[in-house]
Amino acid sequence: MIITQSEFNTLRELIYNKTGIAINDSKMNFISRRIKARMEAIEIRTCKDYLRYLSFDYKKEELQNLILNIVNHETYFFREYPQLEFFVENIIPIIENDKNRIKSLNVLSAGCSTGDEPYTLAIILREMLDNFDSWQVHIDGLDISHKALEKAKKGVYYSRSLRDTPYVYRDRYFDKKEDNYIVKPVIKNMVNFINANLYNIKQIQLLSKYDLIFMRNVLIYFDYDSGRTVLEKLYEQMNKGAFLFLGHAESVAKYTNYFRMERMGNMLIYRK
Asked: Is residue 235 domain-shared with residue 130, that is, in the same domain?
């Protein structure tokens, strides 16, 4: 199947308007293959009919299915381990000091995919917060894909997803059943999953106020305007002094000056 330039333009405009995800011309062949797969799945013969289907799908389920095929949802537990080590050694002590009276911590994992990151954060906080049982810790995992979140809620993973997980945590927080690892309730119950669109202002405004946001490897899908919109709306959902973690290749500076940038060692940290 060959998608025309006009059809490609219509599709990427639709995706951008709904999600803020920016797709350039170099992705045309890639998008064409993904559309073909989705058309075969729902038995639609022409791209024109598929675009019409997307436009009138009021539940937006097919748009979510297409985005799931377009966006790289590959993730795993304890991903970008050095950054997590930095978080443990440098940020958790600040959090403990700032909240030594009211031990309450709200965390958001934005673009959480299949849940590997929010569960990782739950393990880290349970292990590293001093006197954890005295804390009120709430973690939200947010993603646009309801299919990814269905897997996250089940908490069942292949061993590949735990390839960077320290064995002591693998043994302590997962039950092994055949080839699968199942997240134990003590961690699973710490995480709440939300099907929402980061680009949807009304949905973002319904979120909690957070002390810590992890949004790693998400900004790469946005252009300047949509990235700024997402960051500035998330900024409004952060408590004073809250931390924002991005992926190593991402920076707030190119989108907005809302955040305070701090350098700690070789890491850049963003705060409200």
From this structure: yes
